[in-house]
TrEMBL record:
GO CC list: mitochondrion
Residue ranges constituting the tRNA-specific 2-thiouridylase MnmA-like central domain according to the UniProt record: 98-160
GO biological process: tRNA wobble position uridine thiolation
Entry keyword Transferase: yes
Identification of the protein by name: tRNA-5-taurinomethyluridine 2-sulfurtransferase
Molecular function GO labels: ATP binding; tRNA binding; tRNA-5-taurinomethyluridine 2-sulfurtransferase
Disordered: annotated span: 20-44, 263-285
Basic residues composition-biased segments: 22-36
Organism expressing this protein natively: Bos indicus
Domain of life of the native organism: Eukaryota
Its biological purpose: Catalyzes the 2-thiolation of uridine at the wobble position (U34) of mitochondrial tRNA(Lys), tRNA(Glu) and tRNA(Gln). Required for the formation of 5-taurinomethyl-2-thiouridine (tm5s2U) of mitochondrial tRNA(Lys), tRNA(Glu), and tRNA(Gln) at the wobble position. ATP is required to activate the C2 atom of the wobble base.
Record InterPro entries: MnmA-like_C, MnmA-like_central, MnmA-like_central_sf, Rossmann-like_a/b/a_fold
Lineage: Eukaryota, Metazoa, Chordata, Craniata, Vertebrata
EC number(s) per entry: 2.8.1.14
Length: 285
């Protein structure tokens, strides 16, 4: 709302010839991901239906956030410039997230369990209070531990030491049925069933190169070129081709973590070496 107010204020101050930006109407089927510094635009537009986009105006379509702040400065809205960026859930405000959620959901106590040795490290009030990748505040432990998986049936939250632990990294996910802004999947994806593009699932994160594999039911497998930290079911993967936002899909399933794959490789290696290590047996052929 603030950005819209500032744009309207500036709009009234200048004539059509003096306007430094265009009032953009989205009449095309697709839309761009916006200027640098406005990655939230694609995350939101990725779920907007085409019928709505055809009737949508983007008064800030050619502006960066820095330019909008300049407008605020010109109009002496210094309280706007001093306001910190919102990084949390805006409607919660300064309230504690855990306390807010527990106003609506009953506590479901469970355990924090180490992903490395299955050791119980502590307890919590509900697995639904945590998301993958966040720090788990475990009483009595000085070193930080991070949430890498959750077991809703048992109520366990699996954690790992270090913010860069391989259990936090995955390179494969499956979405629900994708909402394509153009109403249809890209022609190249329909033709080849696979397509290179980019995606992101979090505000301000860098675009990640990936390969999409189209399924018959309209869902897609997303294979990232490089493992990504803290993918989580329930988030939306938004897809881009160049500057064009193609659409988005809700993340439903995740592939194995880098830690799981490493464990599998070690187990496989031990199994292969087993016969040669056994008494009385020579090297395997």
């Amino acid at each position: 709302m603030l950005w819209i107010t500032l744009a309207q204020m500036r709009w009234r101050q200048v004539t059509t010839q003096e306007r430094p930006w265009k009032m953009k109407r989205c009449s095309s089927r697709n839309t761009s991901r916006g200027r640098k510094g406005s990655s939230e635009t694609g995350l939101k537009l990725g779920t907007v239906p085409q019928e709505a986009l055809r009737r949508t105006l983007f008064p800030l379509g050619e502006l960066t956030k820095d330019f909008v702040k300049k407008i605020a400065a010109e109009n002496r809205l210094h309280h706007v410039l001093q306001k910190k960026e919102s990084m949390g859930i805006c409607f919660i405000g300064k309230r504690n997230f855990e306390n807010f959620i527990l106003e609506y959901l009953q506590p479901r106590p469970g355990r924090f369990i180490s992903i490395e040795d299955n050791k119980v490290l502590g307890t919590h009030k509900g697995w639904f209070l945590y998301t993958l990748g966040q720090r788990a505040n475990i009483g009595g432990l000085r070193e930080p531990w991070y949430v890498v998986d959750k077991d809703g049936a048992k109520g366990d939250v699996l954690v790992a030491p270090r913010t860069d632990h391989p259990a936090l990294y995955r390179d494969l996910l499956r979405t629900g049925r994708v909402h394509w802004i153009a109403e249809e999947p890209p022609a190249a994806l329909v033709r080849d069933k696979m397509m290179e593009c980019h995606f992101r699932f979090r505000h301000q994160m860098a675009l990640v190169p990936c390969v999409l594999t189209l399924n018959q039911d309209g869902t897609v497998w997303v294979t990232a070129v490089k493992a990504v930290r803290a993918l989580a079911p329930g988030q939306f993967a938004v897809f881009y081709k160049g500057d064009e936002c193609l659409g988005s899909g809700k993340i439903l399933r995740l592939g194995p973590s880098a830690y799981t794959l490493q464990k599998g490789q070690r187990t496989s290696s031990v199994a292969k070496e087993g016969p040669s290590d056994s008494p009385g047996l020579g090297p395997a052929p």
